[in-house]
Amino acid sequence: MTEPATDTLVEVADLTVDFPAAEGPVRAVDGLSFRLAAGRALGLVGESGSGKSTVAAALLDLHRGTGARVAGTVRVDGLDVLAAPDAALRRLRGGTAAMVFQDPLSALDPYHAIGDQIAEVHRVHRPGTSRRAARARAVEVLDRVGIADAARQSRARPHEFSGGMRQRALLAMALACEPRLLIADEPTTALDVTVQAQILDLLHELRAERGLGLILVTHDLAVAAGSVDELLVLRDGRAVEHGPVAEVLGTPRAPYTKELLAAVPRVDAVRGPAATGGRAVPEPDPGAPLLQATDLRREFGRGRARTTAVDGVSLTVSAGEVLGLVGESGSGKTTLGRMLIRLSEPTAGSLRYRGREIGRLPERELRPLRREVQMVFQDPTSSLNPRRTIGESVADPLRATGELDDREIVRRAQELLARVGLDPAWYHRYPHEFSGGQRQRVGIARALAPAPRLLVCDEPVSALDVTTQAQIVALLAELRGELGLALVFIAHDLAVVRAVSDRVAVMRAGRIVEEGPVDRVYDDPQHPYTQGLLAAVPVLDPQIAAGKRALRASALDPVRP
Question: What is the residue-averaged pLDDT of the chain?
Fold first, then answer.
């Protein structure tokens, strides 16, 4: 165990948080206690619903005025947070302690320039600062977090930034007033591996430079392994294990911690029964391809503003095969996936399904084929109608055929819910009543309704915790084995792609730079871009993670050997 902290920055004792509910209060955090010394980093890990983000919000008393009941003791830099007056809390939030939220797009104001938002934070916590000085400070911190041409980019609005750039902008805002504590709530969720590595390296550099204390909330144990000194494992709002990161990950004591580690996909693991829920998967059909794309191209805009999202891609998918599609954000993966099932129109190229050219088919002729090719979308929350029950959403494709009566439609929809592991009695519930993993299961059930031959899965496990992610991966493998489905599996998580795929195609700037059997590409990557992606994948061993971070730093710094 670590030595007792002499300079305690955060002290939490017997923290409980209850949320009101119709059936009675729900306890989200139950008697939690921990400390964090100045300059140290603590990881809060656990499944969705374990209380991680609730704890993080309690450190700044963000539950105040929400109806939640918070009890216990929370001290940050000596301030009794739960008893502090509003004025003291305002000084704490953004001044002494700052928080980086999970979704930067919703955390940033869409109407104001990034630099103006950072400057406003600086002026609030540094009264008397001129607008010009605050603006200069905004450019300074944007430059520090790696935003190129910071003076010009500071005038951009959030929608003009990529996901990684928005996350850097939130970090810049958090650092504007030089806080002593940084609380990062899932700062790398849904980022591709290279941007994720850049954000984590930046957090490490800032800690070294400024002596920042860090509380990192994450469901990704590999992200925590290379970023924190201690781990606190939460389950149902309670601490089940707490200790140095190497000790918790290397020799876990709690059965729950062991379960979490067992569910983590490994990028160096050859596919086997563990990756498919212990079920055998069918061999791909070596005959004529089910889907064949030749020189597909997709352009957006006109004239000088034209952007090429997909640039001459050719690939095939056989019946019963899983093709993994990986690459950084902006590489064209999602655009290509939507083109494969004609949700996006190709600008040029050929697209054949079961030997028939479908790239130019009018919608009337294409409609019957849509039953055979379906998509599972990345965000089940936005892809499900919040005003319709999940049963109605699953039943819609069945109703569209016009072949079944209402009673049979309801029966089939309930069968599909049961097929993906949901209670058929939940037919009349709405999407907001389900967890992220359960909503993803609803999306899969809806895609299965018309009995397709091909599923395009666009980031189906993005932002899910490791155990839920493992359940969804096992479900897809089970459905593939039973139904003979072919899958195009789009993901930025290279470990998950290896676990589920027969072949993998690596995309960069709209082109496929490497393609082949998944084990060959992962074990012996030929293209430098593929090598870079694999090198950026986080690992569970803290020592190896530190070594990889040092290698990345030396590769970027010509002064270092």
Answer: 86
